[in-house]
Amino acid sequence: MRVDSSQYTDPAFYEKEVAAIFKKLPVMVAVSHEIPETGDFLTRDYQGVPLLITRQADGSAKVLMNVCTHRGMTLTQAESGNKRVFTCPYHAWSFSGDGTLRGVAEAPKFGEDCRGDRDLVEFPSHEEGGLLFAVLDPDSTVDIRSYLGGMMDDVVQKGFKDWSYVGNRVIHGANWKIAYDGYLEGYHFKAAHPETIEPRTFSNIMEFDAHGPHVFIGFPQKGILKHKDTPEEDLWKFENDGYDYIRLFFPNVSIFVAPEITQVAQLIPGPTVDQNTTILHFLHPEPPADEAEAQARVEMVDWLRDVVDKEDYQLGLQVQRGLQAGHQKDVIFGRNERANQYVHKWIKYYVNGDESAPEPTL
Q1: Residue 266 pairs with which residues in a beta bridge?
Q2: Which of 73, 89, 196, 332 has the most CB atoms around its CB within 10 Å?
Q3: Which Gene Ontology molecular-function terms are recorded (predicted)?
């Protein structure tokens, strides 16, 4: 399968992707562990949309626009914290953590009582399995849970929501599809990861499954043959003990569960066609037993961040430079890169916007 190189470099095509995919489909905006307590909040800019994500008293989360409804001022510039009331720094209008307008400063002089009519913009959202998804269109009627489908069923069984949050690291890379392409195959393990991944995992051996546009990829470890006599119906029990999985929620999540630590990569395209920001979140099934174990996990986080950054994203930046030169008309995905082909078919499907067209199949 060939994909035109301009799909990685053309600003106009990128804007079509943003409009048709990242502002119309559910995207992961946070992991639940980032706002564990009532009143916790975080802010995050996504495709030019400033988000305010808050934890409610009933345990639910809300995804709001971090913009005062008076005259459009950024409501809070803090990256995170705990607040029950947000006060605009421009004219002191105040809002509750659920987005409700609480008060207009000097209301008698302002005149109109806007309460009940000028609450913060709220985006449709769904939180499950320790992950928070939203659609960046306040008028969207997308059924988020239906969209997440069978992939979310699988993630829920892992119990991430009850795991310990180790922290996150932020890295920067090339066009979002160059980064996403790398999560979709193990063809590059031997060449790009000769001392990190390849010693444990076979290169260029993969099995694929799909739930709608979401992809489930199995990678056999070099010790997998110990399970050659295991009944087929029991093989699912041995994740990380003979094989590993990558779970990808289209269009911006890659989850790698490892025995040492779990990485949830949250990919944010832009701000231009040739860039992305990726937040790597790290989870562990149990809280650390002591300070030494906590420190060991931090070291594992830094090691895995370096693997992704130096051995994947830095290579991706070189790919971006190569395609940006403009003399290679396309890239080609072989039959071993089935997931790459599949995802690019979904990208075409969404960008074309033809609801009568058949959905791609793996």
Answers
A1: 253, 279
A2: 196
A3: 2 iron, 2 sulfur cluster binding; iron ion binding; oxidoreductase activity
